[in-house]
């Protein structure tokens, strides 16, 4: 499997954990003290880091730090959009499209040779 694909797959999985760690508590722990939400989020974030660190190490064998960062941002938006709409029940806005198009430009500039 190509390095970029291994990296993207691992970063996608880590991003699912990250998104739930950062935003999931807003829906599920809204009635709990913030410290409870923080501790649970840190526990979830541990799994994110256990996947993200190897993903970046694998990716760095062939990709630059800038390329890894832009890949991460594209994956973040790709994971966040369905999370926001399906799990958090937020309205789908055209702004996601515009943000995505900006990221397409970022991908172009960081990956062009």
TrEMBL record:
<feature type="transmembrane region" description="Helical">
    <location>
        <begin position="96"/>
        <end position="111"/>
    </location>
</feature>
<dbReference type="InterPro" id="IPR007437">
    <property type="entry name" value="DUF486"/>
</dbReference>
<keyword id="KW-0472">Membrane</keyword>
<protein>
    <recommendedName>
        <fullName>DMT family protein</fullName>
    </recommendedName>
</protein>
<feature type="transmembrane region" description="Helical">
    <location>
        <begin position="34"/>
        <end position="53"/>
    </location>
</feature>
<feature type="transmembrane region" description="Helical">
    <location>
        <begin position="74"/>
        <end position="90"/>
    </location>
</feature>
<keyword id="KW-0812">Transmembrane</keyword>
<dbReference type="Pfam" id="PF04342">
    <property type="entry name" value="DMT_6"/>
</dbReference>
<keyword id="KW-1133">Transmembrane helix</keyword>
